[in-house]
Structures are given as C-alpha cells and as structure tokens.
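Moderator note: this is an archived Q&A kept for reference. The question asked for a predicted structure of one protein chain; the sequence and the answer are reproduced below.
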Amino acid sequence: MRVEMNGIAVHVVCAGAGPGPLSLLLSHSRPRLFLEHRRLLPLLTGPSAHGTASSDAFGVVVLCLPGSGYLSTSGLTHHQVAELVHQHLSSLLAGQ
C-alpha cells in the first residue's frame, strides 16, 4: 500500500501473524526494490508452516524508501528520511 508520510508517498507492506509477533523492519537501498524481500515474508510471518513454533512469528514492515525503487526522489536527506520513517513507525506501532 502507499501511505503519505508528511506529504511524501512511501510504499509499505505490512505482514504478520501469530501471538504477539515481534516487530521487524526491512528496507533496501537504491536501486533495489522492496519486492526482493517477498520470499522472506512467509518465513518470518508464518514460521509454523516451515517447522517452527508460531510464537516465533514477526510482524514485518517492508518500506520502499522515498527516492528508491519506483518512487520519485523526495529531495530529503538520509537523516530526514530516517526521521520520517521513525515518526510513521512509532504511530503505527502505537496503534497495535
């Protein structure tokens, strides 16, 4: 899904299952795409299907950062992107 973070479009994939999953953030760098994490999601979010306990599941957030992948360059510095992501994830996790 695409979300707005302070007026900047960011692509986010959220996945998770299991009792009280630990939060995990996956990201990437240019020119890579978030789709490269696609194979990891079932392993991290549904471990019982792969022979381990469901209590080992993660709640995973995969970010396609502004200026990488197919999103346009935002003109933000690395520090500004980090602050933007921190604010968004803090509000996302506070809602759980």
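Archived answer notes: The first strand starts at residue 2 and ends at 5.
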